[in-house]
Amino acid sequence: SVRLFVAGAEKATPELFEYVKRLGGNKEMIEGYGITECSPFVTINRQGVPRVGVGQPAPGVELCVIHPETDEKIPSDQQGEICIRGPNVFKGYLGKDAPNPFVEVDGKQWYRSGDLGHIAPDGSLILGGRLKRFVKIGGEMVSLVALEEAITAYAEEPQLAVGVKEGDKPALILFTTFDLEKDVANGVLKEDGFARIIKLAAVYKINEIPMTGTGKIQLRRIRELIEEMHA
Question: Is 141 helix (H, G, I), strand (E, B) or coil?
Answer without folding.
Answer: strand
